[in-house]
Amino acid sequence: MDQIQKSSNTLFTLLFFAWIVSMVSMLGSLFFSEIMMFPPCVMCWYQRICMYPLSVLFLVALFSNDQNIFKYAMPLVLLGLFFAIYHNLLYFGIVPETLAPCSQGVSCTSDYINWFGFITIQLLSLVAFALIFVTLIFIRFRTKL
């Protein structure tokens, strides 16, 4: 296997992983809101706005073997990561609730799930954006070579 083929396979694998993470995140958020009837808060909507397009972008990049995915996916990931970090800081009380954007409706500190005493919807979102962020960094370094 030559170096170009090996690099192409690595790019495909990384893009596939990022697509899987974004799809699981999107379907998970839809499951919680549409099946479990958990209404999303304002911060959840901001994160959805960033996550949902990523599943389409990664799918297109996957089929076209696009090495420029970093340029147009990273702004959405950084914005989503910012909202996810802020949401977790609100949830854990590090940022006071008076700074929460949800003055009406569902609170951003709502605790719908709490698996094993620490896995919340807010943490799942943060992990998803962090995984995609790290994957994009790998893609950036692999395509620079």
UniProtKB/TrEMBL annotation:
<dbReference type="InterPro" id="IPR023380">
    <property type="entry name" value="DsbB-like_sf"/>
</dbReference>
<keyword id="KW-0143">Chaperone</keyword>
<keyword id="KW-0472">Membrane</keyword>
<keyword id="KW-1133">Transmembrane helix</keyword>
<keyword id="KW-1015">Disulfide bond</keyword>
<keyword id="KW-0812">Transmembrane</keyword>
<dbReference type="GO" id="GO:0016020">
    <property type="term" value="C:membrane"/>
</dbReference>
<dbReference type="InterPro" id="IPR012187">
    <property type="entry name" value="Disulphide_bond_form_BdbC"/>
</dbReference>
<keyword id="KW-0249">Electron transport</keyword>
<keyword id="KW-0676">Redox-active center</keyword>
<dbReference type="GO" id="GO:0015035">
    <property type="term" value="F:protein-disulfide reductase activity"/>
</dbReference>
<dbReference type="InterPro" id="IPR003752">
    <property type="entry name" value="DiS_bond_form_DsbB/BdbC"/>
</dbReference>
<keyword id="KW-0560">Oxidoreductase</keyword>
<comment type="similarity">
    <text>Belongs to the DsbB family. BdbC subfamily.</text>
</comment>
<keyword id="KW-0813">Transport</keyword>
<dbReference type="GO" id="GO:0006457">
    <property type="term" value="P:protein folding"/>
</dbReference>
<dbReference type="Pfam" id="PF02600">
    <property type="entry name" value="DsbB"/>
</dbReference>
<protein>
    <submittedName>
        <fullName>Disulfide bond formation protein B</fullName>
    </submittedName>
</protein>
